[in-house]
Design a protein that fits this description.
Blueprint (H helix, E strand, L loop, with lengths): L1 H10 L1 H9 L4 H13 L3 H14 L6 H15 L1
Length: about 80
């Protein structure tokens, strides 16, 4: 069971399911964003980070993640 949970965390599948149930769950959105970043799905992670900023503009945890993802995406272009 622990390995299964680890796989879900690494791929973000658990957070996809959680967000299907409650699309505005900011904790699940933040964690999925981090999982997507770890799997190098930067555009998807950036989209989640922007959504999170719209939902919680004063959330300070997402700001450095958003800046980091923005820089990665700009480097790709």
């Amino acid at each position: 069971m622990v390995k299964l949970c680890t796989v879900f965390y690494r791929t973000g599948l658990f957070y996809f399911v959680a967000l299907d149930i409650c699309p505005v769950d900011t904790k699940a959105l933040y964690r999925r964003c981090l999982a997507l970043e770890q799997t190098e799905r930067y555009e998807d992670a950036y989209r989640d980070a922007r959504t999170l900023v719209q939902l919680e503009p004063k959330n300070t945890a997402i700001q450095p993640v958003l800046r980091r993802l923005h820089a990665v995406i700009q480097d790709k272009v």
